[in-house]
Design goal:
homodimer; alpha/beta; 2 domains; 15 helices; 16 strands; 44% helix; amino-acid biosynthesis (chains A, B); glutamate-5-semialdehyde dehydrogenase activity (chains A, B); Ald_DH_N (chains A, B); proline biosynthesis (chains A, B)
Chain lengths: 420, 420
């Protein structure tokens, strides 16, 4: 069968399954999630064997060690997959939630009902745990899903898919509600993102290059996460002790995450007091510092390298930080809106009016006062789990959980009303 | 200046203005709306003169009478434009609304703030009143907008733009917050829908062909309205007197609107009683009827023509109706989900469980019980005004008002919290 025909069949089956999944009741969906978790636990040896095949091939082909690391499953990551599915079962079912009912002057009663999006396509790299996670989130939110993981994880993903299908069948749900593509042909991705008749939204999870390419070629809406170039701004009126703790945490808690602070902005009035203290912490932790002229003059050009224009735009995802002294709140906001990626930005201040202006005027998916940018994720926000973090403004912004995989339709309850 | 360069300049100016408009306060935005309305009233003679130029040319070029009709302004339509802007001023300002604040276990206080989308591009046909309406809605929702109206309305739109700009200036807001393209070059549309760096969303208002073309070529999210193939289903347990009134209204109140019923589905158990009555009403009003074999057998093949497969898919937007007898609720839901356009569909029934199933299982932007499909619009839903009706599931579904032109960002209020 040629790849276009294969994808047409997958799409049709997903559309068909989406109608059954949309009306599945909560108990049925939770039973499927529990059964998937049990199957994964029971089959852990099988999963490890399939994963070994993938890992051996990846090593032989010279895949980068960091990628091999993410590809590799062990007893603990398999237990986490099962645990993740059970946690999704405990989350409230968003489907069918009704809100905002009110009577209109015509006598109709108007409200909204939360409904699944339909068919969700997820494209991700060689991380087998995403297969279970994404399958669980889409099922609970009432969507059918088509999963396309990195080809390096092919055998691992097929083994996980078998457990997922067993769980669906055990709960009386169609196995086509979760389809893991049985091909590594790249043309399958091209087909998946250009079938608006079968796919309602695409969620790409992976590097910026992958996401940019998918966004450019998709004929289906994309919930995308580009970069996380996050800022902390230490205002003139900051409590410097708090600022020190928060700016330490925002940069050094974890270097590789998208909500890690990449640029520190400091008001000129407190720079001479604050910068030497925070830079001593960074230096002690081995963080490379790149600053503007004012920062280097205060901290020392031997300790802080020169930041280029490019640095202000950069998400390092590494133990590197850019530091700039700014004139005032306006300069800080202008810097963030210009160089930032509209992900997560924080102000450190005790000044009410400045905090209020920062929250309103910084155009980012999360804006914070006196808190570490590291809080911007689905777990900390209480979403239970996240399918990704959106840097878009349309549909969903910031961490996307079950609600982001749904939409709302209007409900009108009448008693024979007609329009006059 | 070449058209690409011109559009780059327009885009840059819009992005710049969007930041000012986003933080404009409610009073300022309302003052601008009032000043626009006053300018339109004061300049009504100028507007009529500009419009006469467009209309004369359109007539000379043989534009269809219905389109000339929509293009033509008169004293009353000009008064409506001004009145529409004043009504938008009375609507609550959605920007900055804060919701859902709660404390998380970490101690941060988490909530959401409603924010503008940024820059909205609107592409529409030769209806000058849309220029004022769209400008007003985008301004109130804190967005900058780029308007591209049909070339036949060029002079009318420029005259309205002058009033809009005067209103913005009077309130101290940048005139570039509303830009009406000063070109009729079609390449401008191609540029507008492929500038994601300057345009956040495109709202096309017009025929299905225009919208399909824009959706296919856009590199920017599109809030689109395709067809309105709406259904009423008269269930076995319907109150037939109510059903008669509602099905009459849904079809005959207005023929050309997108929320008009196009196909009537009737449960077999009540078909013999209900169909002759409703068909007598349609016949008396000159509605052409096309039915399946069962309908024709009941009502008479002389009164009801034969419906083809194509009829079930068709939005007539005319005094024509398709009629089908169905076996049961399941058949009705299956018909609607298969042939419909996911716009607005109603069930007529007194049966609780059937109403509940219809609401849940029909996948449309508005689902109704015992009410006319004609209620599906922004005014009847209390949105005050609508920028369009979305048949998409992503971002906004059904009538789109001020809220649909906004998004929500996350707000975190802390007191020095760090992530552990």
């Amino acid at each position: 069968m040629d790849i276009q025909e294969y994808m047409q069949n997958v799409g049709q089956a997903a559309r068909q399954a989406s109608r059954e999944i949309a009306r599945a009741d909560t108990r049925q969906k939770n039973a499927a999630l529990e059964a998937m978790a049990s199957a994964i636990e029971r089959d852990s040896e099988k999963l490890l064997a399939a994963n070994r095949r993938d890992v051996e091939q990846a090593v032989a082909e010279g895949l980068a060690p960091a990628m091999v690391d993410r590809l590799t499953l062990n007893a603990s990551t398999i237990a986490s997959m099962a645990e993740g599915l059970r946690q999704i079962a405990t989350l409230p079912d968003p489907v069918g939630e009704m809100d905002d009912f009110c009577y209109r002057p015509s006598g109709i009663q108007l409200g909204k009902m939360r409904v699944p999006l339909g068919v969700v396509g997820i494209i991700y790299e060689a991380r087998p745990n995403v297969t279970a996670d994404a399958a669980g989130l889409c099922l609970k939110s009432g969507n059918a899903t088509i999963l396309r993981g990195g080809s390096e994880a092919f055998h691992s993903n097929q083994a996980i898919a078998a457990c997922v299908h067993e769980g669906l069948a055990a709960a009386g749900l169609p196995q086509t509600a979760v389809q893991v593509l049985e091909t590594t042909d790249r043309a399958a991705v091209g087909a998946l993102i250009t079938m608006p008749e079968y796919v309602d939204v695409i969620v790409p999870r992976g590097g910026k290059g992958l996401i940019a390419r998918i966004s450019a070629e998709a004929r289906v809406p994309v919930i995308k996460h580009l970069d996380g170039n996050c800022h902390s701004y230490v205002d003139e009126k900051a409590d410097l002790a708090k600022a020190l703790t928060v700016c330490d945490n925002a940069k050094t808690h974890r270097y590789g995450t998208c909500n890690t602070m990449e640029t520190l902005l400091v008001h000129q009035a407190v720079a001479a007091e604050f910068l030497p203290q925070i830079c001593a912490i960074y230096a002690a932790k081995g963080v490379e510092m790149r600053g503007d002229a004012a920062t280097r003059a205060i901290v020392g050009a031997d300790k802080v390298g020169a930041a280029s224009e490019e640095d202000w735009f950069t998400e390092y995802a590494a133990a590197i930080i850019a530091i700039r002294v700014v004139d005032d709140l306006d300069s800080a906001i202008a810097h963030i809106n210009h160089y930032g990626s509209h992900h997560t930005d924080a102000i450190l201040t005790e000044d009410y009016s400045r905090a209020r202006r920062f929250l309103r005027e910084v155009d980012s998916s999360s804006v914070m006062v006196n808190a570490s940018t590291r809080f911007a994720d689905g777990f900390e926000y209480g979403l239970g789990a996240e399918i990704g973090i959106s840097t878009d403004k349309i549909h969903a912004r910031g961490p996307v959980g079950l609600e982001g995989l749904t939409s709302q339709k209007w409900v009108v309850l009448g008693d024979g009303q007609i329009r006059s």
